[in-house]
Amino acid sequence: MPKVAQPLDPARYREQPCAALTADQVSQLGITTQPKPDLESKFGPSCEWNAFDEIGITIHATLLTIGSSLANVYKQHDQGQWPFFEPVEDISGYPGVLLDSLDAQPKGKCQLVVGLRDDLAYSVQVSVDPDSKDYANPCPVVRKATEMAVSTMKAGT
After folding, report:
1. DSSP characters for the chain?
2. Which residues, including other chains, have CB under 8 Å from residue 78's CB and lie 6 or more apart?
3. Where are the domains of the chain?
4. How far apart are CA 63 and CA 141, in angstroms?
5. pLDDT tens column, 5-61
6. Taking the CB of residue 66, how many other CB atoms lie within 10 A of it?
7. Confidence of residue 89 (pLDDT cuts 50, 70, 90)
8. Which burial class, exposed, middle or buried, applies to 24 when counting CB atoms under 10 A from its CB (0-12, 13-18, 19+)?
9. What is the largest CA-CA distance in the chain?
10. Which InterPro entries does this entry report, sorted A to Z (predicted)?
11. Which of 10, 20, 145, 151 yields a CA-CA distance of 20 to 30 A from 27?
């Protein structure tokens, strides 16, 4: 289980979860819709960028507050919770894991959980329309979005 070498304090993003992706970054992802924050989400403050009607993609990001460590995700995998589980060493300098709870080979959706600290993680999930070119392999989309968000949080912008 990888450790977080440079812990990140994402306190600002608890109150402003949509600020983790800047307007420019969202535009680079091809999304023009307004984000929808949810400070009362069951798993922690979250934000959704729903561009399903525009480009066939929805991005949902959550600053996890329940069972939020990367170590907990590894433990869940050891207990059989994640059929698709692929560790990723470097998400803007932080360890992460690509995962899916239903399929051993994700189609149409992919989730990336990255450790911001040893006791705190950030989750980004992408859902892709079946007609999209990214449907068969959605994980590169979630990786790009997560790298952008972590870079923003590192910069504190």
Report:
1. ----SS----THHHH-GGGGS-HHHHHHTT--SPPEEETT-TTSSEEEEEEHHHHSEEEEEEE--SS-SHHHHHHHHHTT--SEEEEEEEETTEEEEEEESS-SS-SSEEEEEEEEETTEEEEEEEEE-TTSTTSS--HHHHHHHHHHHHHHHHHT-
2. none
3. 12-37+48-57+75-155
4. 19
5. 999 999 999 999 999 999 999 999 999 999 999 999 999 999 999 999 888 999 999
6. 10
7. confident
8. exposed
9. 40
10. DUF3558
11. 10
pTM over 0.85: yes
- For residue 49, the number of C-alpha atoms closer than 13 Å in the C-beta half-sphere is 29
The structure tokens 């994980």 sit at: 139
- Among 90, 93, 125, which residue's Cα sits nearest to residue 106? 125
Which residue is listed with tokens 């440079």?
6
